[in-house]
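Appendix B: complex inputs.
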Amino acid sequence: MTGRRQFLATLAAAGAATAAPRGWAQGTPAIVKPGGTLAVAIFADPLSFDPHIAANVQGRAACRAIHDALFTVDRQGRLAPGLVVSWTQPDNRTFVLKLREGVQFHDGTPFDAESVRYNLERIRSGKLGANAIRAGEIRALDTCTVVDAATVKFALRYPFAAFLFPLTDVAGCIGSPTAFEKWGLDYSLHPAGTGPFKLAEYMKDARTVLERNGAYWNAGKPHLDRVILRPIPTDSTRLAELRSGGVQIAEAMPLQDVHRLRDSKDIVLSERIGFRWEYFGFNLHDAYPGKSKPFRQAFQWAIDREALHQVAYFGTGAIGYDGILPGSPFADPGYAPFHRDLDRAKRLIDQSGLGRVSIQAPLQPDPVKQRAAQVFQANAAELGVSIAIQQVDSAGYAATLSAGTLPIDLQGWWGYRPDPDQYLAILLNSIGSYAKYNAYSNPAMDALIQGEESALTEADRRKDFRQVADLMNEDAVYVPWHYSSDFKGLSPAVRGFYHPQDGIIAFQDLTLQG
Amino acid sequence: MIALAGGRPRAGRALRMPGDALARAGLALVVVSVGMAVLAPLLAPFGPDAIDYRAMLQGPSPAHLLGTDDLGRDVFTRLLYGGRLSLGVGVASVVLAVVAGVPIGLLSGYLGGIADEILMRVIDSVMAMPPLVLALTITAVLGPGLANAMLAIAIVAVPAFTRLVRGQVLSVKHEDYVMAAQSVGARPSRLVLRHILPNAINPVIVQAALGVGFAMITESSVSFIGLGAQPPTATWGSMVQVGFQYLETAPWLALAPAVMIFLAVLGFTMLGEGLRGLLDPAVRARG
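Resulting structure:
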């Protein structure tokens, strides 16, 4: 199994699938057969097609089929052209972007530098009110200047090496200024991007129909006439639809079925590791035992990461010791500073001087997190620490977390972002929201974060991120334990498939055979 | 042994369980379920929360009679320990409901008038809501946990006992023997406790037996949606919840606790129906 998993991961990483066995769905045939309708089982409704508002992964995926982003991420995890064809960084606070020319929005408005400026200003203008969820991603932007019709210049408030990375996702998706003006917040249902597909029909919780944009700038694409996204929240129903041919792609395949599906003859299972990373988080407020550093550190040595890997994720994904996801240019596959050592953990607990400890642990009823939490609970019990799990709904969990009253975070995770700064700064920098929730503030960490944000080369940032990981583990406010995988099930008829690390499929590359 | 109806004037009402096959079969199921739960520490081959990730989701085998769950825990063991809580919550919530519901019914029926009106309208408003929805709402408001679930189930079950007892009180309070006691100057408390209650209690016993079944199903439902027992504590309902995710790959996980819920509820229901046959003169007359 491991061999096959590595094989699939390699395929996904290299995108070189043509030599794979039995008509492997990732292969691109020599002659592309255009046309056809692809149905995709997604697990939640996209809810919004406004890229500046869309929040869930399904909404982001639909927005990115309708809109092009300024940048893309290449298969090595680095920044690559999108609507921006080339860029320079004259100094650590300035970026100059050369835009793709001759591109039109779905409503006929030409794409130019002004539309880029318009979109970024809209994100941070306050026009979106409480929906302005992407404003934080471009907080570093001071001014966006139109140099000429095909050139824009970003001036930053402070040096920020990772600034361009959020622009690979919805924050960088450019919509037609004409359509934004016409529809206002209703743009959500009347999107006009430059992307390969147009929104043809939307029925909430039933289907989203995307139709081919015949005037797409990337000649020859998309190949499909139509993509239908069907929200199906139940794992087994998504799988049944895929088996019966009702859909050709199903996302979020149930983990417990993964081993069985790998042996399936009529379904191709694709795994991409590094979809998200998991940690157990401690609250450092005085009211909670997490205030003691030795107490927190004890868990680095006490938790059974192998058991967590097997139980919570059925042996899929990989054990992880830091927040740098596999697939990132900053990842270090050999980084494993801990092994299970209960004696050492017990000594640290003694050192903490806290005596017998009992912690309330609010937890959402997510099966993966429930399993992980119970392993953690058993490991903690070996240290004499009692964990009382209390199942709460997602709103209750989020409210407790953001109020700074979550004693311990047993379901901590962060989804893939192309640059680790996009979440590590939030978790570790003392001005980051999660750092505030957990009362974590370490000037040495702030300096390291500032260092990687102002560094100009990838090599310098790699060194900085290693130090960030080391200090994060030393302070143990977060105890990392896993990198999980994204699983998609495909019909063998699907061709041209590449499994990106963020799990968002480029539908324009797909074809259907047979 | 069920001769709780002391003071009932009609003669020849000795309760003979062996005479009623339904009650006997129900009792047998109840005794087996309770016996398994009580003897759990002696019968269970493993600890109820002992995780073994090398033995996850294994099918039934000599080592694990009912297989293992998604954390490699022995399902048979958890079934035994889960029964302690499921049955315990079922019985305890009915006891609570009886303790609260019977006095209200006695008062309401005996006092009559405006007190009866007020109490009955309150009881009606509770009965107007679907019991499961009400139990879930109360548990959600009180906070997740088995104790709160038990309280919620008790609250939901109170009206049935109140209504029942009130009806009984109304039907017996004008009986000759009550009137006779009243005429010789018996105090109201004596009248209610010595003369009315003993003659109104038989349907309560039947309802209690039936109510345990309802309470167990409700506890299972509350635990199924995560508001009852909290991990790693096993109840049959929480075990079905976990098993539900693995219906295709490991059906025993949901099946084993579901069968136990079925058998225990069936047992209590048969016992209740059997008792009704033994205790209810109308049924006896027909039978």
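The two ends of chain A are 29 Å apart (CA to CA).
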